[in-house]
Amino acid sequence: MGLIVDVFAARSDNFGYLVHDQASGRTAAIDAPEAGPIRAALEQRGWTLTDIFITHHHIDHVEAIAELKQAFGTRVVGPRDEADKIEGLDELVGDGDTLELGETRFAVMATPGHTLGHVVFHDAEGGHLFSADALFSLGVGRMFEGTPGPMWAGLKRLRELPDDTLVYCGHEYTQANAKFALSIDPDNESLKARAAEVESLRAAGRPTIPFNLGEDKKANPFLRADAPELAKHFDLEGADPADVFAAIRKGKDNF
């Protein structure tokens, strides 16, 4: 028995996820971007929605909470530090908590930066990380609310997870992320290989997730803010990696 992950498109560029604990039959939506695609995925699988796990307060991750809760009577769990911004939460979680879905255990990890209370969910036994907008393939979310130091610290914690972790992020941004990454790290062979793979996947109309965390550690410039070549690119040799991270983020914002 284990966890089945169903991936589908939602809104314009969101990913929707259903996670199904085989032992108990419980099914959770990771975030609630859009009710229609979630309902369609449930129907296709023959699953009943029992839970919704929310990562952060942005509308494209919470908009369908009310409709789904009314339709299915779901338990809705979300970040304690954003409880005042999200309607319909039944349980609050924060860094270091464990979230249960039947026999599946998710470690809750704080990843501030995109929003101050953003959390991610890590299924260590199954090797799944649901990172929402904290970590993308070859990128990270915009730093709307946080500051570089804490955001970099949160990403370093994710970087410490096992290389074989499969990462399920919130949006299909990989192609654009690859173009920026190559502009600042053009000699990175791992990045060039991933960029080529992404081009092939998108040309075939296929998603670029889940992605392998170990490969992303080598290719994602935001996970490599302590790499000397990136510090050199921004004329920040010897600087705190958090400052290099800030420069990378600003560079992407203006790319």
List the helices and strands and how they pair.
Blueprint: E1 3-10, E2 14-21, E3 27-30, H1 35-45, E4 51-53, H2 59-62, H3 65-72, E5 75-79, E6 91-93, E7 98-101, E8 104-110, E9 119-123, E10 128-132, H4 148-159, E11 166-169, H5 174-184, H6 189-203, E12 211-212, H7 213-219, H8 228-233, H9 241-253
Parallel strand pairs: 3-4, 4-5, 5-6, 10-11
Antiparallel strand pairs: 1-2, 2-3, 7-8, 8-9, 9-10, 11-12
Polypeptide structure, described:
Helix 4 (148-159) packs across helix 9 (241-253) and helix 6 (189-203) packs across helix 7 (213-219). This protein has helices spanning 35-45, 59-62, 65-72, 148-159, 174-184, 189-203, 213-219, 228-233, 241-253, and strands at residues 3-10, 14-21, 27-30, 51-53, 75-79, 91-93, 98-101, 104-110, 119-123, 128-132, 166-169, 211-212. The protein has a six-stranded mixed sheet with strand order 1-2-3-4-5-6, with helices on one face. The protein contains nine helices and twelve strands. The chain has 255 residues and is of the alpha/beta class. It has one domain (3-253): 4-Layer Sandwich (Metallo-beta-lactamase, Chain A), CATH 3.60.15. Helix content is 34%, strand content 23%. It comes from Devosia marina.
